[in-house]
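Moderator note: this is an archived Q&A kept for reference. The question asked for a predicted structure of one protein chain; the sequence and the answer are reproduced below.
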Amino acid sequence: MQIQLPIGLPPKHFAELYEKYEAFFRAEGKVLDLNFNGNIYHICIQEVRAFV
């Protein structure tokens, strides 16, 4: 499953941190395994956008 992930950051720190947060959540394009409500999901975060 490919995911697009919007994230919110505080206005005070947005300019200095948004690139680091986007890179962290993108996880270098690796496939991540999530367990949600007893179901296993294999996801790849395709795009991350930070907003204020």
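Archived answer notes: Strands lie at 2-8, 31-36, 39-51.
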